[in-house]
Design brief:
The complex is a heterotrimer.
Chain A: E1 5-15, H1 55-67, E2 71-72, E3 75-76, E4 79-82, E5 92-95, E6 102-108, E7 114-124, E8 128-133, H2 145-148, H3 154-159, E9 166-171, E10 178-184, H4 191-208, E11 220-229, E12 240-242, H5 248-267, E13 275-280, E14 285-288, E15 301-302, E16 309-310, H6 313-322, H7 327-338, H8 342-348, H9 352-365, H10 372-381, H11 391-402, H12 409-422, H13 424-431, H14 437-449, H15 455-467
Helix pairs in contact in A: 1-6, 4-5, 8-10, 9-10, 9-11, 12-14, 12-15, 13-14, 14-15
Chain B: H1 5-11, H2 18-35, H3 70-74, E1 80-81, E2 84-88
Antiparallel strand pairs in B: 1-2
Chain C: H1 6-14, H2 20-38, E1 41-44, H3 46-61, E2 72-76, H4 103-110, E3 114-119, H5 154-160, E4 166-171, H6 177-183, E5 186-189, E6 209-214, H7 217-227, E7 257-261, H8 271-286, E8 290-294, H9 302-317, H10 335-348, H11 354-377, E9 380-384, H12 400-405, H13 411-416, E10 420-428, E11 431-438, H14 444-457
Parallel strand pairs in C: 2-3, 2-4, 7-8, 7-9
Antiparallel strand pairs in C: 1-3, 4-6, 5-6, 5-10, 9-11, 10-11
Helix pairs in contact in C: 2-3, 7-14, 9-10, 9-11
The chains are: A alpha+beta, B mainly alpha, C alpha/beta.
Chain lengths: 468, 94, 471
């Protein structure tokens, strides 16, 4: 056994697909829009602007928490998380501190291992930063300098204290988009489990239809915190957080990279520094992200602009009813109710729409005496697109495929006799124990009949005759 | 009561000169000594009041409305670049 | 024309005796004459004012008669006014042109007021004297060597000197009531949440109250009629009906129970101020009101609670001023803003939160209970608005703590959210003294009723300053 145990926890941010932002009525669909066209006094942090929370976002956050088996706090509130960064318009993020909407949930992995969910809370997204070099300060720049940077003269730029030739550019279209943060206990010990957990989590928010969780668009962002422990009963005295990873593959790579890097440091008798690191695809590794203004005292306090949020038992159960049957539950039911294999059930439940399609097809297929298994096979093997293929059409296709004519027993016996007589070698082979010869004989019978008939029936007749 | 002005100023993102540091340290420690008198009051089991309206659950419907135009949004910025707000680089090194 | 009240101007406008354009011109002329020596206005919006006056005259000609239609007013420069410079009295925003109108500004605009300009203030509303303005202090119109009070300093000075008929203010710890007292005008701090805070630069979000100054109580009620009410853009404005604020104004005070909180008549109170307030109380008694001595036992700690909660919220609210999206960067903050930001940052920081911020929120609960108990026994309370007379410019500028203590009679109302009206009560050594009337939440109509009675019998407000153009 390795002398180090990996201790891994996860923070996941999921952007909700509400129509409007979290605290203002700007449209929340910022992706691919012209920069700074989806802003208002509230999300641009203009003087005097005040936040009013989005009811839909709160409900969806609670439903995510419920789907993860969390307790819902009856009394909850928003808090301000204070820190400075150019993408944070107000100089604080409205988040939740000591009273998140959900707490103490879990996700079960296939291995049976349970990952504890510490909390599920509501917050707002920040603007988006791009880091560029100042074109006029970079010799041989590909960019057309003066054209692009008309409003920032080099002098002005330098007078603002830039120590090197970098500029940070900010687009606030994303500022204020509703974000749900899901934090786990440090329950993972390997990267594979992390990926499985993430797949389940993504499945759940998609099932709930509250987020597309499109990684490439940044709708789901992953932040593992990783450390190595020599004493399984004690958490290590340091923690390395890798920020904003946007693919499951990278999260796996980043964790494995970190585990190796940290092990080397520990082997040298040192402790890895507690820090935030980034993932670089080109370097295929993590790198330290030291910020100029390092400050991690967030000075949380209750958001005075937003009255507290409370839930009655009735409201909580109403929301709970809106949480659909999730994939794990569906798989179990499909196996039990329809006799599907776990494998097939997993495939037909990958999307809630596909699972619904499957169930509808099963129901409609009953009239045609089609089994759920046949329908599942058809959907899986023929890669049926549930969006474009009508259920009726699917049923018709499966039925015609499956239709076999039965042959008159007497007629069949005659044909079998003839085929056996015509193929003495195959008969000899079969009798000498070469069982595969039977399929050749089945084929010969089929050809002789000239119609699509039940192969099983032919096979049985052949075996009977041969046994005589 | 002493106050570490340099640390607090850093947290608050305020540029402070050494002279200011001295001045503020003495002024603010006076104020802190005064407000520390609150410790004379017994507040065992007293709930906290952070708002006084007694309101709860004030939310808005999820409906999208009008935004500022890009021009209006950018109009008050000291420096912009390609319709983005521009600031000095934030990373110490990369 | 400048000696009119809003109510009188209303009559003359409706009867077409005067036009809004004439009224506007008359006030603008007086601003030109006296603003250099008073420094009450930071921005005068002459062209815009004439446009609005013409529009108001048109509406009047069409037969419309609403309380504030065609009335010249001014806004504290903490109110965002679209297309007009909004500085908060700070160099940070010296060239900031607001991109939108706040709710109160918008409601007044729709009601047809004529905005003459933006008034001076302690930068970010931090101060009690007006001296923290980055654009120079406002002078007290009754004696230009004295402070007008703050943080809303330009507004009461402008109303007192009749440069405008009414003007807006904000009150986070006394910033309307104290300067109203120092400038011999009527100032209302409404119930927290009665008037929307949207579009007024936040000082301390859980304490900020959006109010205004007028010469008389009736004028004050007419103004509140426009600004009060729920706003979907401010989640802290309760959906409580807005009553007719002038309906009960003449009802008098017979049978009224007036609380006299003993903690407000203490050693630090200037004996001459005390004499005037006591005289006022006697008058109420003579009119059939019952004076009841009460106690608000936690009052001596209100300032401490206030300077923790207020600075904590200030430190967070001023974080958005980073020079990226608007304004100058954080090096442009003045000393007082820096002090409050640092104090607030400190009381919220790791290791100090419980001892300061949490403790303050708990004592705030006790302060709230004090008022709840008191208002079970009395209808309103009467106290001095300030423990002292206006002081000389420069007298307290180097002693922040002394300056903070001038809010001692006003902060309690902000911490518990109740309304307060400051009313001209008399003069000492030719300097004004104000009386503060406090009531339960949403009792503004009652405060007006109580104030109006006193004002009718004791027209102190009519003693206007003798202005000269000397500095």
């Amino acid at each position: 056994m390795n002398k180090y145990t990996p201790i891994i926890g996860l923070e996941v941010h999921v952007e909700l697909k509400t129509k409007s932002k979290m605290f203002c009525d700007c449209p929340a669909d910022y992706f691919g829009k012209e920069p700074n066209t989806h802003t208002c006094p509230v999300c641009l942090g203009l003087p005097g602007a005040l936040p009013v929370p989005n009811q839909q976002a709160i409900e969806w956050c609670v439903m995510i928490a419920q789907a993860l088996g969390c307790e819902i706090n009856r009394f909850s509130k928003f808090d301000r998380k204070n820190y400075f960064y150019p993408d944070l318009a107000k100089g604080y993020q409205i988040s939740q501190y000591d009273l998140p909407f959900g707490k103490k949930g879990e996700i079960k992995l296939k291995s049976g291992k349970t990952i504890g969910i510490t909390r599920v809370h509501m917050e707002e997204d920040t603007g988006k930063l791009t880091h560029v070099r100042h074109p006029e300060l970079v010799s041989g720049s590909q960019n057309a300098p003066s054209e692009m940077l008309k409003q920032v003269s080099v002098e002005d730029y330098l007078s603002r204290g830039a120590q090197h030739d970098k500029l940070t550019l900010v687009d606030f279209n994303r500022s204020g988009v509703p974000l749900v943060e899901i934090v786990t206990e440090p329950d993972f010990h390997n990267a594979k489990d992390v990926v499985e957990y993430l797949q389940s989590l993504r499945q759940i928010v998609r099932y709930l239809d509250v987020s597309n969780a499109d990684m490439e668009k940044g709708e789901m962002r992953l932040e593992p915190n990783i450390s190595l422990s020599t004493n399984p009963d004690k958490l290590p005295n340091y923690k390395v957080e890798v920020k904003n990873i946007n693919s499951f593959r990278f999260v796996e790579k980043a964790i494995n990279y970190e585990l190796k890097r940290q092990e080397e440091i520990l082997e040298n008798g040192q402790t890895p520094p507690q820090e935030t690191r980034g993932w670089s695809e080109s370097q295929n590794g993590t790198f330290s992200q030291r910020l100029k203004e390092e400050a991690n005292d967030y000075r949380y306090f209750p958001e005075p602009d937003i009255p507290p949020i409370t839930f009655t038992d009735e409201q909580i159960s109403t929301l709970k009813k809106r949480v659909p049957e999730l994939q794990v539950e569906k798989i179990a039911r499909f196996v039990k109710e329809f006799g599907l294999s776990e494998y097939d059930a997993e495939i037909v439940t990958r999307e809630i729409a596909l699972a619904d399609y499957f169930e509808l097809a099963v129901k409609k297929g009953e009239a045609e005496k089609l089994s759920a298994k046949q329908i599942a096979n058809a959907i899986i093997n023929q890669k049926i697109d549930h969006g474009t293929t009508k259920v009726e059409k699917l049923i018709a296709e499966i039925s015609s495929e499956a239709k076999v004519e039965s042959v008159d027993e007497k007629e069949l016996e005659k044909i079998v006799e003839r085929v056996l007589a015509d193929n003495p070698q195959a008969v000899a082979d079969y009798k000498s124990g070469k069982e595969s010869a039977i399929m050749f004989l089945v084929g010969q019978c089929m050809r002789a009949i000239g119609r699509k008939v039940d192969a099983q029936q032919i096979k049985e007749t052949l075996i009977n005759q041969l046994a005589k | 009561m002493k106050i570490n002005i340099a640390h607090v100023a850093k947290l608050a993102n305020l540029p402070i000169s050494p002279q200011e540091e001295q001045k503020f340290a003495s002024q603010l420690s006076n104020v802190l000594d005064y407000i520390a008198r609150l410790n004379e009051i017994d507040t065992t089991n007293v709930e906290e009041t952070s708002q006084i309206t007694g309101l709860e659950n004030i939310t808005r419907k999820d409906e999208a409305g009008k935004c500022l135009s890009q021009k209006e949004a950018l109009s008050q910025a000291k420096s912009t670049h390609n319709n983005l707000f521009a600031v000095k680089g934030v990373f110490a090194d990369e | 024309m400048n000696n009119l009240t809003v109510a009188q101007a209303r009559q003359k406008l409706d009867s077409k005796e005067i036009s809004s354009v004439e009224l506007t011109k008359s006030y603008l002329d007086k601003i030109k004459q006296h603003n250099d020596s008073l420094n009450a206005f930071l921005t005068v919006t002459e062209d815009l004012a004439f446009e609005e006056a013409k529009a108001a005259d048109k509406r009047i000609a069409e037969g419309e008669s609403t309380p504030m239609l065609g009335i010249p007013i001014a806004h504290k420069d903490l109110y965002l006014t679209k297309g007009v410079k909004t500085t908060a009295g700070s160099k940070v925003l010296e060239d900031y042109v607001a991109q939108y109108d706040g709710t109160a500004v918008e409601r007044l605009k729709q009601a047809g007021v004529v905005m003459l300009g933006k008034t001076n203030l302690d930068a970010w509303a931090h101060g009690s004297s007006g001296e923290n303005s980055d654009f120079g202090p406002t002078k007290n119109p009754y004696n230009k060597e004295y402070v007008p009070g703050g943080s809303s300093s330009g507004s009461p000075a402008a109303v007192a000197s009749e440069l405008v008929l009414a003007a807006s203010g904000t009150d986070t710890g006394g910033s309307i009531r104290l300067p109203a007292s120092f400038c011999n005008v009527v100032g209302l701090k409404p119930t927290y949440g009665r008037v929307s805070r949207y579009g007024v630069i936040s000082m301390a979000s859980s304490l900020d109250s959006i109010g205004h100054f007028t010469k008389t109580v009736e004028d004050n009620a007419m103004y509140l009629q426009i600004t009060a009410g729920h706003d979907p853009k401010d989640a802290t404005t309760p959906p409580i009906d807005v009553p007719d604020y002038t309906a009960n104004i003449t009802k008098g005070v017979k049978g009224l129970k007036i609380g006299v909180p003993q903690e407000y008549f203490i050693e630090g109170l200037d004996p001459k101020v005390k004499t005037i307030i006591e005289k006022g109380l006697k008058w109420y008694e003579s009119e059939g009101a019952e004076l009841i001595e009460i106690s608000l036992p936690h009052t001596p700690f209100a300032i401490e609670v206030y300077y923790i909660i207020q600075t904590a919220e200030v430190s967070s609210n001023l974080a958005r001023f980073d020079g990226i999206r608007f304004g100058n960067d954080r090096s442009a903050f003045g000393d007082e803003a820096k002090r409050r930001i640092m104090l607030g940052t400190y009381v919220l920081s790791a290791g100090y939160y419980d001892a300061f911020y949490k403790k303050a929120m708990q004592v705030r609960t006790l302060l709230k209970r004090d008022f709840e108990e008191a208002f079970k026994k009395v209808d309103v309370m009467i106290t001095p608005a300030s423990p002292t007379l206006p002081w000389k410019l420069g007298e307290k500028t180097n002693d922040p703590l002394a300056m903070y203590l001038s809010d001692i009679f006003t902060v309690h109302a902000n911490l518990v959210g109740v309304p307060g009206l400051s009313l001209p009560a008399g003069f000492v050594d030719d300097l004004p003294v104000g009386m503060q009337i406090l009531g339960p939440h949403f009792s503004e109509d009652k405060l007006y009723q109580v104030g109006y009675a006193y004002e009718q019998a004791n027209p102190v407000w009519q003693t206007r300053p003798e202005l000269n153009t000397k500095y």
